[in-house]
Structures are given as C-alpha cells and as structure tokens.
Write the structure tokens for this entry.
Amino acid sequence: MPHPLNPRKLGIAAGISIALIWGLSFLSIKVAVAVVPPMTLGLLRFIAATALLALLKRLLAPQDKLQPKDIPLLAAAGLVGVTLYFFCENNGVKLVTASEASLAIAFIPVMSLLAERIFLKTRLRPAQYAGAALSTLGVYLLVSGGISGHSDIRGYIFMFGAGISWVIYSFITRKISARYQRITIVFYQSLFGMLGFIPFALLERRAWAPISPIVWANIAFLASFCSALGYWFYVVSVDKLGLSVSSVFINLIPVVAIIAGFAVLGDRLQLIQVLGAVVVLGGVFLATLAAPAKKES
C-alpha cells in the first residue's frame, strides 16, 4: 500500500493548490484594488509576504548567505519581477475583469518560449510554433472581444506589460538560480521588490482611505497564500514532478480564475472571448507540453 505522502501525490496536491490559489488571486486583487491604490496594495502585500518568506528561508535555507556580487542582479529581478510586474497587474486587473486579466497572463509561457528563441537561439519544435501561433490568435480574439464589449484597452496593455516584465525577470533570475536555493532567491527578490513599492505608494497617499475588514482579508490572502505559501507549493511541485508536468497545473490558473470570476464577481465573457480563451489555453498547452523535459538541478 503506497504511503499517503509519496512524492508524486505530494507534487500533484501542490500543483492543484497552485492552480486554486493563484487562480483566486485575480479575484482578491479585483476586490482590493477597488479600494487600495495599486502600488499601495503591492506594498502592503509584500511587507507581509516578505516577513513570511523570511521565516521560510530561516527554516529551509538558513545556510544560504547572500554574496555582495549578486545584490545588483537580485535587486534588478525584484524591481522588475515584483515592483514592475505588480504595477502592471494591479492596474490591469483594475481596468478589466479578473477573467480577462488571467487570460492575458496565460500568454506568459508562450512569450517565454519566443523570448528564448529570439535571445537564446533555443530551437523550438513545430508544435511549439503552432502553440505560439494559436495563443497569439486567441489573445487577438480575447482583446478584440473585450474592446467591442467596452473593456478598457489600457487594462490589456498593462497585463501584457506584466507578461513582459515576468519574462525579463525570468531571464535575470537564471543567472543566479544555481548559486542559491529557490527560497533564498525569492526572499531577496521580494525584499527588493517591496522596497521598490515605497516611493510609488507614497505618491498615492492622497488616495489612501480606510480599509474594510473584507479588503484586509483579501490583502492577507494575497500576502500569505499567493506570495508565500503559493511559492512554497510551486517549489514542491517542481521538485516532485519536474517543470514540464508542473506547467500543466500553472496553465489551469486562468480556468480557475474564469470559473471563480463568473461565480463570485459575475464576470461574463462574450462568445468571441470564450473562443479566444479556448484557443489561448489550447495553444499554451500545445506549446508547453511539446517542450522537451529539462534536467532538474
């Protein structure tokens, strides 16, 4: 009889948790950003998240010491992958529905593949090109349907800005990923990203208003589950299942966001957007599942 916590089951449980937690994050952002300005929301979220990540690092990687030569790279990754990313995402979610925002973010795996092809000269398989083309078509259908349905095009621009910033962040992180454990890297990136929010949040101080308990609860969920525990579940999933299998769970995030947005916030996608969503997700699955498995370090 297999042990209830065997590695594969643990990895699958972590992957499902990732899809649920990060899928629901779009709803919490939508609720919170209606009251809290975008950069102030980022600051509040990452003050708490950085404190939790510090505790995780102390428990999981107390021996990891930051080398001064790596500070510029970690700071750049934090400012791009945290400060800039959430500047774009929080503003984007404020302007479009949670469902539309999650579908725009679903394009990130394809953007990453194309960036690797352009800048790293990585060879792509025909199925990956086909997946990229399908996803691009799906995004076009999504955006065109949103514009005809009177969604704010600036929201889509912000969400694609978030995608670009995440790709840049991933490239920066590659340069130091072998020198530290993942928890150490994410802790310092979150720390630098949190510091990056401060001047922008201060510029928003005229828009500060009392925060209700419901909004505080959503901020707490974003900090503890999405930024801290979500990362931990991702680490477990990658360690137990590998990157290629874990990506399947990541690709389920927009599905969770769309269902939750429909049930909780009353989000509605137009027929052309539903078609775009199917094409985007199909293209992402095709592109990521066609990728050759990478050796884990």
Q: What stands out?
A: The chain has twelve helices and no strands. Confidence is low (pLDDT under 50) at residues 293-297.
